[in-house]
Specification:
The complex is a heterodimer of chains A (306) and B (536). Chain A has 306 residues and is mostly helical. In chain A, 76% of the residues lie in helices and 0% in strands. Chain A is built from twelve helices and no strands. The N and C termini of chain A lie close together (7 Å). The model of chain A has no long low-confidence stretch (mean pLDDT 88). With 536 residues, chain B is an alpha+beta fold. In chain B, strands 16, 17, 18, 19, 20, 21 and 22 form a seven-stranded mixed beta sheet that branches. Chain B has a five-stranded antiparallel beta sheet with strand order 1-5-6-10-9. A four-stranded mixed beta sheet of chain B has the order 2-13-12-11, with no helix packed on it. In chain B, helix 10 runs antiparallel to helix 12 and helix 16 runs antiparallel to helix 17. The chains are: A mainly alpha (306), B alpha+beta (536). At the A-B interface, helix 2, helix 4, helix 6, helix 10 and helix 11 of A face helix 8 and helix 14 of B.
Chain lengths: 306, 536
């Protein structure tokens, strides 16, 4: 097991390097650079700035300078927010996204699974139809529609919650962004759970358990839950990474200052430093959580060997 | 050297406005709120609050509150004393001497002429890589261009601390509008010791040292930037606001929501679809903002392609119904434009070309005639490409213009939408290309210099020796306004651009308890030291 983990972590290094090279290359071939502005700079000034950020060096030299700094834990300067290093920007914004992500995850996973299980147990009943139409609605309404509607109702009309801001993560500022993030995931988790659960409940060993006269609750928790978890966990690994690295819609709509906005504005501004930094963080997290998910499989289902 | 006082007008202005500056910003008898705090939207996150790294308005907007240069502007855009209490110039208008007031940095250090010398040299030093270094080269400060190109040492710049409170600037030649430049936010002093100690991180809240009415207490990128009153500011007794929270909200609808939820005190850009209804619903919160010095025009390629033919250029310009574009499409207070230099430009008399006085019907007829003369018709329609960035306003406007060209001229114009960064990096502008400008200073040359044949922003590739001659002549005259008018007439007669619209007076929403925020400055140079919160 330990050897397996070690091997996976070792493979991660070339994977990350490859991701870094490809993203670095993609950014540099994309037309327009960080210093192309509405009003172009005089050539002399532009040359000075490009020299400062090593943009006048050949592509591979730039890449190796970047990787060299990265290995020393330095994500380099932001090309656009020049008063900050990328490390500082990430240190400011990631806790925001992680808080929102973890909270919405803690709400959406149990709620989604509970609703999915309820629907599965009452398959084709009114409750099932009701829950599944609700969850279908949740899946199809994107956060950028949900967020303004919630703001109009809960901030402007009722005045219960602030319409935006972060203020160091005071609970009242978390409510609307967390809800906007959670509702969509509750819906999709419920749907996946329901599907997996129905499949498990149709297995012969569940029929055997029922025939033995075991109670529904006992069957559910002792026999059906674990096998139904596999598809859910497979989906939750990447979903967790996505949610803790920020949502651009939530960041822009609620002005939270999270990492999602940096990712998108970094790409639009051609902030090479910021985009590389965040890409590598997201890539590392994705690799790590995929490993965690693989390890979880062996716990959930002892038949899976690694 | 015989020094004589500068033009009578400016010295008169100094004495009048010095009084103005020292007064309290609110009328006698105003009852002030206990909590002097406001929240405003800056429209975008600033790239930097280092004066040498600022390159656009959201940053300049903060810069005006954080640092104070030799001069500032009053509410009507006139230059008034800032850190310099008075100034004088030698006989041939090349050496300016500024007498500085005794003032302090926010950390209590005395501010001296040496700080200005350091800041101006740093701005031009290639090592600083300032995107606005060229601004100090406009007034031809001695050696500025050479230093910017790395061909001279920053120490050779024509600036000098005669003593701690006398700052001297030497220009290579007389530049009539020099004093109009000195209120610009990149020409402020900076605190050398702090910069040397913290490098590029000196502007972070825990390090920053400023000399303006406010300083920074908190900055969370993309969330908020909080300014607090600087108790060491020279005029701190007259600064009422204690705290300004700036939010970087780019989306007009999000800003409006925050305003309606009572979280920001002012919303400048109202979403056009809801504008009428909002103004009706909140009559007590309507305020006016006067036209700023800006313009939107379209470059026409005068060097190659069908637009090389002046008849085609004129036809394209005539066939645009600017009333429809401004009133129906944009609905942002913009006004139709038929020239280049805004009429409210200081000391300038607007030129009004003949076609500005025609009805749209007359223009359309003239356009049809010209396009036929140029050899285009049903069998041989005019085909052009029109390059615009993907901003929704630009795309809407372009779509409407292409429709007008199709119906009036039968032209087939293809819109090429490019992502902003790709658009800015474009080297080949095609036939028609979205242009636009905001004044760097309140004088006509900021507009007309664009179109000299060697101009870096001359995307029309306009090349008229007579124009170049006039603009060169204007540089050595004490009053070049006639040369400016002649040059602009040439440009418009040659239709090197399609003038479309410029900002006009507009309405916006502000909480009625905010005072002192009259938006009348033509360069949109606002200082929050004049703002106060009334009891409510």
């Amino acid at each position: 097991m330990l050897l397996y983990i070690l091997r996976r972590l070792l493979i991660a290094i070339p994977t990350l390097l490859f991701i870094a090279l490809v993203s670095f290359w993609l950014m540099h071939v994309a037309p327009g650079g960080p210093f192309d502005m509405e009003r172009p700079m005089p050539e002399v000034v532009r040359a000075n700035i490009e020299a400062k950020f090593h943009l006048d060096e050949p592509f591979l030299t730039q890449f190796f300078i970047y990787i060299g700094d990265f290995l020393q834990g330095d994500l380099g300067p932001s090309f656009v927010y020049q008063d900050f290093t990328v490390t500082q920007l990430v240190a400011q914004s990631w806790p925001v996204s992680a808080t929102l992500g973890v909270l919405s995850f803690c709400i959406s996973v149990p709620t989604g699974m509970l609703l999915g299980a309820l629907a599965a147990l009452n398959r084709n009943s009114r409750l099932d139809y009701f829950l599944m139409s609700l969850s279908m609605t949740g899946v199809v309404i994107p956060a950028f529609v949900l967020a303004p509607v919630m703001v109009t109702i809960f901030s402007i009309q009722l005045g219960w919650f602030p319409a935006g801001g972060w203020e160091g993560g005071k609970p009242i500022f978390l409510v609307l962004p967390v809800m906007s993030l959670a509702i969509g995931s509750i819906a999709s988790i419920a749907r996946v759970t329901r599907g997996a659960m129905i499949e498990t409940l149709n297995q012969p060993y569940i029929r055997t358990a029922r025939a033995k006269g075991l109670s529904t609750g006992y069957i559910l928790f002792h026999h059906a839950l674990r096998p139904s978890l596999i598809p859910v966990v497979a989906m939750l690994g990447p979903a967790f990474v996505a949610v803790v690295t920020g949502s651009v819609i939530i960041d822009i709509f609620f002005g939270t200052g999270g990492m999602g906005q940096h990712f998108v504005s970094g790409a639009l501004n051609r902030d090479y430093g910021l985009v590389m930094g965040i890409t590598l963080i997201v890539a590392s997290l994705t690799i790590f959580f995929n490993l965690v998910v693989d390890l979880l499989y062996t716990i959930i289902d002892p038949r899976i060997r690694i | 050297m015989k020094i004589r006082t500068l033009l009578m007008l400016s010295s008169l202005l100094c004495s009048v406005t010095t009084l103005n500056v020292l007064a309290k910003p609110y009328p006698a008898g105003t009852s002030l709120a206990e909590k002097q705090e406001i929240t405003l939207n800056n429209g975008a996150e600033v790239t930097s609050i280092d004066p040498a790294k600022q390159a656009a308005e959201p940053a300049f907007n903060l810069g005006r509150d954080l640092y104070e240069g030799l001069a500032v502007q009053d509410k009507l855009g006139r230059t008034i004393p800032g850190i310099a209490e008075s100034w004088s110039v030698n006989d041939d208008n090349t050496v300016y001497t500024f007498k500085l007031r005794h003032s302090k940095w926010s950390n209590g250090d005395p501010l001296t002429a040496k700080d200005f010398v350091y800041a101006w040299q740093r701005l031009l030093d290639p090592k600083t890589a300032s995107p606005y270094a060229w601004f100090a080269a406009i007034p031809k400060i001695k050696n500025s261009a050479k230093i910017m190109k790395g061909k001279a040492d920053p120490g050779t710049l024509g600036v000098r601390a005669v003593d701690d409170y006398t700052f001297e600037v030497t220009l290579e030649q007389s530049v009539p509008f020099f004093l109009k430049l000195i209120s610009h936010p990149v020409l402020v002093p900076v605190h050398k010791a702090t910069i040397e100690k913290y490098g590029s991180e000196w502007t972070q809240p825990e390090h920053i040292v400023t000399n303006g009415a406010f300083t920074v207490s908190e900055w969370k990128v993309n969330e908020k930037l909080v300014l607090v009153k600087n108790p060491n500011y020279w005029d701190a007794d007259n600064v009422v606001l204690e705290k300004i929270t700036w939010l970087p909200i780019g989306d007009a609808n999000v800003a409006l929501n925050r305003y309606l939820a009572g979280e920001i005190d002012q919303v400048l850009a109202l979403p056009s679809a809801q504008k009428k209804q909002l103004l009706r619903k909140y009559p007590d919160e309507i305020a006016n903002t006067s036209a700023s010095l800006g313009s939107t025009f379209y470059y026409l390629n005068t060097a190659e392609g069908p637009t090389k033919d002046i008849r085609v250029r004129k036809a394209l310009s005539y066939a645009i119904d600017r009333e429809i574009l401004t009133n129906a499409i944009l609905n942002n207070g913009g006004i139709p434009m038929y020239n280049l230099v805004p009429p409210q430009t200081d000391g300038y008399k607007e030129i009004i070309p003949e076609f500005a006085g025609w009805s749209q019907k007359q223009r359309n007829e003239a356009a049809k005639k010209l396009i036929t003369e140029a050899g285009y018709g049903k069998d041989n329609p005019l085909r052009l490409t029109f390059t615009v960035p993907t901003f929704s306003g630009d795309v809407k406007l372009a779509t409407a213009m292409v429709g007008m060209w199709k119906s009036v001229l039968g032209a087939q114009v293809e819109i090429k939408q490019l992502e902003p960064k790709v658009f800015y990096a474009l080297k080949e502008p095609g036939n028609i290309n979205r242009g636009g400008w905001t004044a760097d200073y309140n004088e006509a040359s900021t507009w007309l210099d664009i179109f000299i044949s060697s101009g870096e922003y001359n995307d029309s590739r306009y090349n008229n020796p007579k124009y170049d001659e006039l603009m060169a002549l204007s540089k050595v005259l004490a009053d070049p306004s006639e040369e400016y008018r002649q040059a602009e007439s040439l440009l418009i007669n040659d239709m090197a651009i399609i003038p479309v619209y410029r900002p006009g007076n507009d309405k916006y929403l502000v909480k009625p308890y905010i005072g002192g925020y009259e938006r009348t400055n033509p360069e949109s140079s606002y200082y929050r030291k004049n703002v106060y919160v009334k009891a409510h």
